[in-house]
Structure formats: structure tokens, C-alpha cells
Amino acid sequence: MKTKETLDSLEEEVTAWASDRKLIDPSNVPFQMMKVIEELGELNATISKMMPTEEVKSELGDVFVTLIILSRQLGIDP
Question: Whole-angstrom Cα distance, residue 73 to residue 15?
Fold first, then answer.
């Protein structure tokens, strides 16, 4: 299934990117949770303003990224 492969690929790329930047640190969980909430707010604003689909996709991507990093910080396999 292409969607599963795409999500697995995203998870791998985000984990590698975050690891390179030393973001996979359990002590950063409170900060990362704030980032998740911030990105959810941006997604909400984009949807509320009926922005183009590409902007919604971009905001959804940001939410995915922040959630993947948070899950890794918590020791949970996304």
C-alpha cells in the first residue's frame, strides 16, 4: 500500500533529521508538546480561513513532523 510506505518513509526521514539535530531528547518533551499545539493551531487557522489545499497539506505535514519527534522523545514507535 503506497500510503503506508509513504508514512513509513516520512517517519524515517523525520527521525533521521531530528536525530542529526539532537532533538530526540526526552528532556525536550514539554517544549515539543508546545510545538505540536502551535502547529495544530496553525492548521486550524489555515482550515478556518479556507486556504488552498496545498497550504492545508503543508500544515498537516508540520503536525506530522512534530508528532513523530514527540513520539520518539517519549520512546514510542510512531
Answer: 10
